[in-house]
């Protein structure tokens, strides 16, 4: 078979968390396969696909924010072929210039099978929290998926159920096979030179929050709670790791003007995988207070590193965290303060919980994730 993967949006955004983490881990493994793989980027100016050089993909994955491909060629993906052709959609393809209702129709007319990976239905369930282009483009993408997709992967039962609920609501009768494949937590690391400022931060007692700064993640609630906690625990630090997203001007302004900024409160944006792993390893407590998640990857990554993790009790996060996570219901300032103080005031309880996580938590690896997808694709095309 030949597998085609469009990473146009990944190349445009150059983010390194969430969906991009999934793409990176998948690509690291698929380029080693013995079947044919085309990694594609869409050239909107010429309305053609570029095939990226497979030998360069590994270099790109080591530096996704800065690497520029040197070798690529235009490719006609619709050329006639007797082999089985799979178009696997694992990127945020709803925002690409090549609209899926047009592309999918053409793919099907050339005997392609279309496989999709759906991370969540946030653009449908919580559109007010997203960028305008995502709100606009996602419904059209879903319509194309309902009409043409041959198989859909989901990262959680919660995301799959949201999909089924919407499908029933829209009275979509076409049956599309689905499968839940949980994401991994053991991301591949590479050694990196340690900046002295980071080294100093890693030696402090800090609360960690990993995720793009956006309204859905609720970083603002943690910031307010920390301001209160600092009066009682002046040696405590707060570290946010994540790019600045959308609709957060007010929060960013509050963060920049907070008197504790760059003293006890830090926001880091340019953190590679090796350094991110170190921040997980040295965290006192990790928090993830999202309103809704398709999966909640930072929860799994935190537990993989043996951390006490505080998360919101909604959507998929209970699936990911199980009984290893401390959950809060409403993300109120009081809830956040109370649960943090529970551990700050009781070292025995803190040690007991960490030992329980380290002893009993079983990770889902990225190898498991990758092998499950390839197995399902291979099974369906036989």
Explain what the structure shows.
This protein has 382 residues and is of the alpha/beta class. The protein has two domains: 199 residues, Glycogen Phosphorylase B (Rossmann fold, 3-Layer(aba) Sandwich), CATH 3.40.50.2000; 165 residues, Glycogen Phosphorylase B (Rossmann fold, 3-Layer(aba) Sandwich), CATH 3.40.50. The chain is built from 16 helices and 14 strands. The strands form two sheets. It has an eight-stranded mixed beta sheet, with helices on both faces. The protein has a six-stranded parallel beta sheet with strand order 11-10-9-12-13-14, sandwiched between helices. Helix 2 packs across helix 16. The chain is globular and about 70 Å long. The model has no long low-confidence stretch (mean pLDDT 94).
Q: Gist?
A:
With 382 residues, this protein is an alpha/beta fold.
């Amino acid at each position: 078979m030949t597998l085609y993967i469009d990473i146009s949006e990944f190349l445009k955004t150059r983010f390194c968390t969430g969906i991009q983490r999934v793409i990176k881990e998948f690509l690291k493994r698929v380029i080693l396969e013995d079947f044919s793989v085309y990694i594609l980027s869409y050239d909107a100016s010429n309305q053609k696909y570029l095939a990226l050089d497979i030998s360069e993909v590994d270099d790109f994955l080591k530096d996704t924010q800065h690497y520029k491909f040197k070798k690529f060629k235009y490719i006609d993906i619709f050329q006639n072929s007797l082999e089985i052709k799979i178009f696997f959609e694992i990127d945020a393809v709803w925002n690409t210039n090549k609209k899926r209702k047009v592309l999918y129709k053409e793919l099907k007319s050339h005997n392609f099978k279309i496989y999709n990976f759906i991370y969540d239905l946030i653009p449908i369930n919580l559109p007010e929290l997203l960028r305008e282009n995502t709100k606009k483009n996602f419904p059209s993408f879903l319509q194309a998926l309902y009409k043409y997709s041959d198989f859909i992967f989901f990262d959680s039962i919660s995301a799959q159920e949201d999909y089924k609920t919407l499908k029933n609501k829209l009275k979509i009768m076409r049956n599309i096979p689905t499968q839940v494949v949980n994401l991994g937590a053991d991301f591949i690391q590479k050694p990196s030179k340690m900046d002295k400022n980071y080294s100093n931060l890693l030696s402090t007692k800090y609360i960690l929050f990993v995720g793009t700064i956006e309204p859905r993640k609720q970083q603002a609630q943690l910031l307010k709670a920390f301001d209160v906690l600092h009066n009682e625990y002046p040696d405590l630090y707060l570290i946010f790791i994540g790019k600045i997203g959308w609709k957060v001007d007010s929060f960013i302004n509050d963060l920049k003007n907070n008197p504790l900024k760059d003293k006890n409160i830090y926001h880091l944006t340019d953190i590679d995988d090796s350094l991110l792993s170190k921040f997980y390893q040295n965290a006192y407590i990790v928090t993830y207070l999202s309103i809704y998640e398709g999966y909640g990857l930072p929860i799994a990554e935190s537990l993989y590193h043996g951390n006490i993790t505080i998360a919101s009790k909604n959507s998929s996060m209970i699936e990911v965290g199980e009984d290893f996570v401390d959950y809060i219901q409403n993300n109120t300032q009081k809830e956040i303060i109370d649960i943090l103080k529970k551990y700050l005031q009781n070292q025995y309880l803190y040690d007991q919980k960490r030992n329980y996580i380290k002893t009993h938590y079983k990770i889902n690896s990225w190898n498991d994730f990758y092998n499950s997808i390839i197995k399902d694709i291979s099974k369906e095309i036989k």
